[in-house]
Design goal:
Layout lengths: L14 E10 L1 H14 L4 E7 L4 E3 L14 E3 L7 E2 L3 E9 L9 H18 L5 E2 L20 E3 L2 E10 L3 E9 L3 H19 L2 E4 L4 H15 L2 H4 L3
Parallel strand pairs: 1-2, 1-11, 3-4
Antiparallel strand pairs: 2-6, 3-5, 6-10, 7-8, 8-9, 9-10
Helix pairs in contact: 1-4, 2-3
Length: 232
Amino acid sequence: MTLPHASQEDDGAVRWRLLRHGPGRGAWNMAVDEALLRSSPHPLLRIYEWEEDAVSIGYFQPWEEAPAGRPFVRRWTGGGLVDHAADLTYTVIVPRSHPVAHLSTLDAYRLFHAAVCQALLSLGCSAELATESDGGPSTRCFARPVRFDVMREGKKVAGGAQRRTREGLLHQGSILWPEEAERSRIAAALPWGLACSIGAHLLSDELTPEELRLAARLERERYATDSWNRQW
């Protein structure tokens, strides 16, 4: 795969941005993702944490499905509720000009989760993609696997949701892993998994001043507001 107008290394691999962020507020985490989708000219992988015992709900979920007493934020992507108390969260963003942005939703889902599998396998963990969906829809992301979710010993350990806009493709993923030390190892291996799956060359990067300003505005005007989080 090649990305027109994107910087490339000598071996032809497309250069991807790699962003690692420590614990952040739920509203800030979601605002950064949208800001990057709107403004980043290059594909990227973002790995980040949550500073509070928060949950996120899918864009179309009723807010009452969030557990009472827990801070929550509405994602821009769909899917079910995700409890972020013991997970590793990551985001993949590809601009509209990138070939991956033109894959079907299912094919892109399979591609990103193949990267997660590669990362887990590199650490000696068993991992495979679900071959079919299990039952009907659920309000919780990890209650039932869908096709191409990541499975470990018969249980779903990674899921995700996507949104497509005129700017590109946003994939927000969660890897459920109780052991904090193991989550750190997975976070370190995930860029390698993506490189294997897509042929990306990831270079560490930071948010630009413009991206920080846009994220701050989106947090203030959207993700931290009741009008957004309690709209359904």
